[in-house]
Amino acid sequence: MTVTGDGRNTATSPLAASAGLTDDDLLAMYRTVLLSRAIDERMWVLNRAGKAPFVISGQGHEGAQVGLAWPLRRGYDWIAPFYRSITTCLAFGMTARDLMLAQFAKASDVSSGGRQMPGHYGSMERHIVSVSSPVATQILHAVGIALASRIKGEDAVSVAIMGEGSSNQGDVHEGLNFAAIHRLPFILVIENNGYAISVPAEKELSVKDVASRASGYGVPGVIVDGTDVLACYRAGRDAVERARSGGGPTLIEAKVTRLTAHSSDDQQTKYRSEDDLAQGRAHDPLPIFREQLRDAGVLTDELEASMADEIRSIVEDATTFAEGEPDAEPSTALDHVYGDATGAEPAPPWHPSAGARSEGPAA
Ligand SMILES: Cc1ncc(C[n+]2csc(CCOP(=O)(O)OP(=O)(O)O)c2C)c(N)n1
Ligand SMILES: [Mg+2]
Q1: What proportion of the chain, given as a percentage, has pLDDT over 90?
Q2: pTM for the predicted model, two decimal places
Q3: Is 170 in the pocket of ligand 1 (CB under 6 A)?
Q4: Which residue in 7, 168, 196, 318 has the fewest CB atoms around it within 10 Å?
Q5: Range of the domain at 278
Q6: What is the pLDDT of residues 103-137, one digit of tens each?
């Protein structure tokens, strides 16, 4: 292992080299997966303790999310994520505090000032489009952003991310067709976990793979194993290069597993067999990635211990910090829902242009 003065590991194991990465990159990806899992698990504890009203989880999707997000340029490219995109948002620069502020719906929540449902992350500064509750609408936002990138002469890539159930919405046909015709710098990521709430994939789709639909738009459709982080990284990297260089859109379908119920309001043992649940657990990307890094000699006992300590303290800090932040003022509940009569409504408090705004429009 080659460690620089600032602690960076610049070594390149055969595993890292096979993806054009360094061991440091692999460790940073693994750390992101660990952090995402730890935050997610904490959210469930908070829910069961009566402190968080609703949790929607990314557990089981982390490997695909980290691999696919890694090749993007943070704060330059754009993502239009969905409610399971916790690892994607972390990989794209959101912090544990940001995610917890959203979970507790606090006034200082960067995603929406506590106005969105939990799990609906967003950050203007980081180019993360706020999650829309009606599924699949984000493809239209992302394709519009890709068109804007083209018109402005930039080379920013725009990515829409959703589940396989959502991929059946009409918006997806319109978005992908438009993006394909105009060869926009756009990527559609489908995280296929085999369920849309309680509906199994065979009752959502008449085909086995969502990616097979890509040919109907004349774009590449790529299927990737969501437990294989580096395969996801390569698929993401190829699609980003293609989009950035004018080659047009790609549809990537990552086969993942949903380790939790659909949300904290669901009980999946009502509709999934014990065998199905066990198969899902066997496809947990976290231990699979961990074993891969250990076998490659990239992850050592010492590194694991120090990462575990670091992550524990980050999650503690984020929880304590977010819980202690003030709730939004009830008098601001209707801000940004309707414009005021003068049209002079100030920017929302989480908007970078809002500055030192302290009070909402007159009621
Ligand atoms: C337009 C619309 N229809 C229905 C819903 C209710 N709903 C929320 S999540 C969901 C399931 C989506 O399944 P999938 O796209 O496979 O994503 P997953 O939750 O499995 O990750 C549904 C039907 C919604 N939010 N929006
Ligand atoms: Mg699904």
Answers
A1: 85
A2: 0.92
A3: no
A4: 7
A5: 31-327
A6: 999 999 999 998 888 999 999 999 999 998 999 99
